[in-house]
Amino acid sequence: MSGGDPARTAVPPPPGIDELAVYRSLFGAYPDGLLMVDAQGIIVLANPAARQLFDYPGDTLIGRPVDELVPDSMRPRHAAYRHAYGKAPTSRPMGTRIDLRGRRRDGSEVTVEISLSPLRADGAPSGPAYVVAAIRAVDDYPRVKQALQRARFAECVAQLGRLAVNAREPQGLLDQVPAAVADTLQLETAAIIVFESHRSLLRVLAARGLAESIATLPCDDVARTLVGHVMATGEPVRIADLAQEHAVPLAPLALTHGLSSLLAVPLSDRGRPSGALIVASRSLRAFSDEAAQFLDSVGSIVTTTLQRARTEEALNHSQKLDSVGQLTGGIAHDFNNLLTVISGNLQVLQEMPACTEDAASQPLVDAAIRATRRGAELTGKLLAFARRQRLQPTVVDVAELLASLTSLLRRTLDTRIAIQVDARPCACRVDAGQLEAALLNIALNARDAMPDGGTLRFTSRAGVALPDELRDAQGPDRPRSDAPAAAQRYVAIAVTDTGTGMTEAVCERAFEPFFTTKSHGRGTGLGLSTVYGFARQSGGTAAIISAPGAGTTVTLYLPESLGLSTLHPAAAGCEQLPAHMPVLLVEDDPDVRVATRLLLAAMGCEVSECPDAESAIEHLSAAQRLGRPYRLLLTDIALGAGRSGLDLARHARQHLPSLSIVVMSGFPDQTPDAASDGPVLRKPFTRAELAAALLRSLQSAPGHEPG
Questions:
Q1: Residue 367 C-alpha from the chain's centroid
Q2: Cα(536)–Cα(314) distance, rounded to whole angstroms?
Q3: What beta strand segments (E) does 123-200 contain?
Q4: How confident is the model at residue 77 (pLDDT cuts 50, 70, 90)?
């Protein structure tokens, strides 16, 4: 046996075997790509596997620089490495690096592993005459391919997640999702499609590829569409061959563009299905569980982004309305004081002989008084919107109220308008008068939207949950019910017309104060804003669904009451104010004080005046000591610096328990507490309202005897 290295012992070929033919066959049949490159980096031989890997037909690889098979970004580094390798060539097996990239003929890249073997020519003093490179596409390894795919999925999800966190506008992110998903899955088409229930259509929020030609997908039956199927099942849908799929209904997105395979995952909104994220391809392919999980992760990002956008929009809208409400409440007191002065003086003037005997003056005064009433009504509407009006909630039988209201409307509306009522037995706790006014406001708007007649329909349903999209806009208001907030149920009162309808832009602004589409002089723009303010102040909210030519539905959601009760308002007293009744009037505004004193004097009262609480306390004490006590105290809540009218009322109740007290207020959200024990007189007020408030206070005084 020879003592040499067995590995270096040449083994002669078997007899009859052409050694050169064998080597050529092995070179051609080798499964990895083989390239023989000379010292100048020129390819001199390439086997079929190499030609297929780099997509070069025939012998077109021969004679090309090997650098052409390296991506542009790696060529300088590759050239330096090749130069250094030529000086010290060694065999390099596969598996030492896995981050090498090859460049195909079309410019696309492939991850490869490469082994190098120097091949010296006989007699060469140094350096290889040739280098044989064995090249294997790493993507061909199933395990490696799966790992790379997972890495791409994770990178895409992370990138979209960062965009979602930093995006100021959701559409900016949505526009990037289809392209990112399609590139990651190496597909042609991707789309985000949501279902808009109030318009019964599917809307494409963003798309890539063939889906870009689709704007909206109106559907007679959404359940018969692919998106409807995904929403109904709540599970991903994977279709490797659309031509063979008959169980899943398909949308135009899949059928009309020659697509062959499809993957769709549902989008949700607070646990409810709201649409689908869809990817599709012209080629047949089976979608893996990892691909479905990846698409579901992207769908979660899309869902979160849409929910955040809706929440922020609702918050911004609520803040804008609250700002207007704060402004309205801030000017209410001063405006009501002005109206009180005007109204009071006009009422006194109205009864003066010079006016009653002058046929020309009386109509002018009457018109001015009516104008002050309209001013007071306007202020009331603004306060209703601002949710600062004083409500008197009671348990209201909704069916009974609707029956009474529609009976009135049938007598007053155009006879071409048919009125229908579908009222289920239900009760809600609200201010009955304000609810009736709100429904009347909605009905009059509906009438204006049906100039040629139509149908006006009232419906009521009990036990309704507040829709999610409205719950975001509830803000700090709380349902006025004994039920926990999470379990709160509402009565939904809907008013539907068959009128002209509203565009989406108009619908979004319909509740804004002073916004109106009516011609100049036909509307103030406060009708629906008043409705909205009343519903919010009552612990509920309001919603509008409308489309051009499809009519409008305005729905009030009001806190449900557990039972009906019949209210028996106290009968109005028949007593008259005592003649020469001593009254102490406390008001810091001199004009309001004069106007109110004139009204009291006209009713036969003996009036003393004070501008603040301190002087009023002195007057009350002095009158008591002299044995000529005041019978009634009429004070404003706001008395400037010092004690308020409420402080004065508490002091008087404590030291003069027999004194009747009436509190005036120009602030809509200020009410006296139990310590004042007196009625509230809202500014501006009429002479009759003033007399009624005084009489109620006298009737509730200790020791009062009717008569």
A1: 46
A2: 14
A3: 130-137, 189-196
A4: confident
For 351, the 3-state DSSP assignment is coil
Q: What phi and psi, each to the nearest 5 degrees, are found at residue 137?
A: -75, 120
Report whether 515 contacts 525 (CB < 8 A).
yes
Task: State both tokens at 268.
Answer: 């949700």
Q: List pLDDT tens digits, range 541-565.
A: 888 888 888 888 999 999 887 644 3
How far is 664 from 171, CA to CA, in rounded Å? 53
Helix axes 687-699, 590-602, angle to 10 degrees: 70
DSSP 69: G
Residues in the chain: 707
User: Each residue of 153-194: pLDDT tens digit?
Assistant: 888 888 888 888 877 777 888 888 888 888 888 888 888 888
pLDDT at 371: 79
- Per DSSP, the residues of 573-609 read P---PPTT-EEEEE-S-HHHHHHHHHHHHHTT-EEEE
Question: Which residue in 405, 409, 400 sits closest to 427, CA to CA?
Answer: 400
d(CA 493, CA 436): 11
Residue 167 vs residues 157, 158, 160, 189: alpha-carbon distances, Å? 15, 14, 10, 24
Percent of the chain with pLDDT over 90: 11
Buried b / exposed e over 662-677, threshold 16 CB at 10 Å, is: bbbbbbbebebeeebb
Q: Give the separation between CA 497 and CA 447, rounded to whole angstroms.
A: 8
Residue 264: C-alpha distances to residues 178, 247, 300, 408, 619 (Å)? 12, 15, 13, 54, 82
For the purposes of burial, counting CB atoms within 10 Å of the CB of 273, is it exposed (0-12), middle (13-18) or buried (19 or more)? middle
Q: Which residues pair with 456 in a beta bridge?
A: 419, 497
Put simply, whether the predicted model's pTM sits higher than 0.85 gets the answer no
Burial class (CB in 10 A: 0-12, 13-18, 19+), 304: middle
Assess whether pLDDT exceeds 60 at residue 695. yes
Q: What is the residue-wise DSSP string for 208-234?
A: EGGGGG--EEE-S-GGGSHHHHHHHH-
Burial of 469 (0-12, 13-18, 19+ CB in 10 A): middle
Quick: pLDDT tens for 324-341. 666 666 666 677 778 888
